[in-house]
Design brief:
Layout: H1 3-17, E1 20-21, H2 22-29, H3 33-45, E2 50-52, E3 55-57, H4 65-69, H5 73-86, E4 92-95, H6 99-106, E5 113-117, H7 120-126, E6 132-136, E7 140-142, E8 147-149, H8 151-158, E9 162-167, E10 171-172, E11 178-180, H9 186-195, E12 196-202, E13 214-217, E14 224-227, H10 233-242, E15 245-248, E16 251-252
Parallel strand pairs: 4-5, 4-9, 5-6, 9-12, 12-14, 14-15
Antiparallel strand pairs: 1-3, 2-3, 7-8, 10-11, 11-13, 15-16
Length: 254
């Protein structure tokens, strides 16, 4: 069995049944405990699980996309409008999963752009806009959150480069670390960061600190943050030290 397939099955087992022992995973997958331990080390390095004594655990805290889409719409629209103003016609834009990226896509109608995404709702929003060259990344479908993930998505991203990446998050720590609750999305987000020339984090005030157990990146990987309220002092200092511009709904904070 290929390592990628083992990793998917390990994560699926952990999400379905909570913490799992190395011996149990070894029996389920038909491989040695030593192989499982190596897999767990790799998955922990990728931020996809946490090893515990004798096994591992993942934290999966997503709400369905339709539910999240109805939350803080006014704030997300303010962020989306400001983010859209950063982009010039003729440029390429990479849009992350999530509802704020979807609100940004709604602001791009009528523009002459290339939009690259693994967000199925973004694809549906822009599919009939003939002025936009639309690139849908391949991968495994996460139906509940309307996104594409996995090694196919990551491999697609390695072949691409975008002028802008607009990145979503579950939370931002005071040290500026960008976090996510959805561990299977983290490798895709990291691949997006590598593919983006300018990396802009979209985060409404509820994301400071928000939540999330898996680290996506540090502040040094960001060029700007667009939010709807002034950022707390500790996080602002972390961004400032890393040279990150903070844009607050129409004005620059840092």
């Amino acid at each position: 069995m290929l390592a990628e397939r083992r990793h998917q099955l390990i994560l699926r087992a952990l999400r379905a049944g909570g913490p799992a022992a190395v011996t149990d995973l070894s029996e389920q997958l038909g491989v040695s405990p030593a192989t499982i331990r190596r897999d767990l080390v790799k998955l922990e390095e990728d931020g996809l699980l946490t090893r515990v004594h004798g096994g591992a655990v993942v934290e999966e805290g997503d709400q369905p996309f339709a539910e999240v889409a109805e939350m803080r719409v006014t704030e997300k629209d303010a962020i989306a409008e400001r983010a859209a103003a950063m982009v010039r016609d003729g440029q390429s834009v990479l849009l992350d999963i999530g509802t704020t990226a979807y609100r940004l896509a709604r602001q791009l109608h009528g523009r002459r752009l290339t939009v690259i995404t693994s967000n199925l709702v973004v694809y549906e929003e822009l599919a009939d806009d003939e002025g936009i060259e639309l690139v849908l990344l391949g991968g495994m479908v996460r139906r509940e959150y309307r996104s594409l993930v996995g090694f196919l998505t990551e491999d697609n991203l390695r072949q691409l480069h975008a002028d802008w990446l607009f990145l979503g998050t579950s939370g931002v720590r005071p040290g500026g670390q960008v976090m996510d609750t959805t561990v299977v999305e983290v490798p895709v987000k990291r691949a997006m960061i590598k593919a983006g020339e300018k990396v802009v984090l979209l985060a409404d005030a509820a994301k400071f600190p928000g939540n999330g157990m898996a680290k996506v990146c540090g502040p040094e990987d960001l060029d700007a943050v667009v939010t709807n309220e002034p950022v707390d002092a500790a996080t602002r200092a972390s961004f400032q030290e890393a040279g990150v511009e903070v844009v607050v709904a129409g004005k620059v904070q840092v």
